[in-house]
Write a structure and sequence with these properties.
Number of helices: 1
Largest sheet: 8 strands, antiparallel, barrel
Distance between the termini: 43 Å
Order of helices and strands: HEEEEEEEEEE
Helix content: 10-25%
Oligomer: single chain
Strand content: over 45%
């Protein structure tokens, strides 16, 4: 009797685990970089992210923002290349600069954001513009 219960429990746990893995969407996430206090809020599947206070942009694949500030870089296009890599086109919220970037999933919690072509991402910090490195590591929160 105990063996049968153990076997049924194991089968149930495997089914739950399998279902959870199918629902995992690596490019639907909130990602954060502690060093520069910037984040990526993304959903490259449904492309339904709205920027708080800037709803006039409508639903988007995502954006790059800075903690405690309304400035952002808007993702106007995003394409998932494979389960580990996506590409995106971004503009600053003034519409004066744009760039192409990629996002690579290193593992389930670490992502590499790389500016490929175009403008350099700059964020406001202490009343000045700070350039971000071409490559940044983000962690899933």
């Amino acid at each position: 009797m105990m063996k049968r219960f153990g076997l049924l429990t194991l089968i149930a746990l495997m089914a739950i685990s399998s279902h959870a893995q199918k629902d995992y969407k690596p490019f639907e996430a909130y990602l954060y970089n502690d060093e520069y206090e910037v984040f990526l809020r993304i959903n490259f599947y449904d492309k339904n992210i709205k920027i708080a206070g800037q709803e006039l942009y409508g639903e988007l694949p995502g954006y790059l923002g800075r903690k405690g500030h309304s400035f952002c870089w808007v993702m106007v296009e995003a394409e998932i290349k494979n389960e580990k890599k996506a590409s995106m086109t971004m503009i600053n919220d003034f519409g004066s600069e744009d760039l192409e970037a990629s996002l690579t999933r290193k593992n389930d919690s670490v992502y590499i954001f790389k500016q490929e072509e175009g403008s350099t991402v700059k964020i406001p910090k202490n009343g000045k513009w700070q350039k971000l490195p071409k490559t940044l590591v983000f962690k899933r929160k």
